[in-house]
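Suppose you are handed a protein chain with no further information: no name, no annotation, nothing but its sequence. What can you learn? This example shows the usual starting point.
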Amino acid sequence: MCNLYRMTKSGDELAQWFEVRNTAGGANLAAEIYPGCPGVVIADGRLRAMHWGFPLQVKGARGQVLKPRPVNNARAEKLGGGFWRSSFVERRCLIPLNGWAEAEGPKGAKTRSWFAMPDGGMFTAAGIWRNSAEWGNVYSMVMTECVQRYADVHDRMPVLIADDDRAIWTAAAPGEALDLCRPWDGPLVLERTSEPWAGRG
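A reasonable first move is to predict its three-dimensional structure. Written in structure tokens, the prediction is:
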């Protein structure tokens, strides 16, 4: 599952790249996006600032309500379930990124393995979004099975949306959009690093 991705362009650069209006303003975003942190998505033909992860209420051992946990990944096969359904049917978005990371290695010594396009350019992952009382507008990244050649890294990967399919994901009927939730069959580059998985930056 994806718990870290890169997005290194400014809002204005993204708006120009994807030919949408920038309503995210000058959002101060980190180059590396973590669950519960601000990011940007393309929704309703606009670049919009949101938080990554749907809030999930958590209770403590004595039944007390704790701080919500961000649910940042939505499994494609679960999109028809109650937690995700209305967002999938009514509010699909595109998540711009230029790489995502998975953790590899033994417990306590995991490192970051980065996936990107061969040219290092921007691409989009499938997302869904909604408004929340806790954090305002929030989004989650849709995940599917990983392509077989990278299954040794992780058994899941983001649903990547090709240029020609972006309008289908955002505007077509749910059944057509669901057909796009499949492993990526295009080229990818895997870079294994010595960066520790734990910690930010």
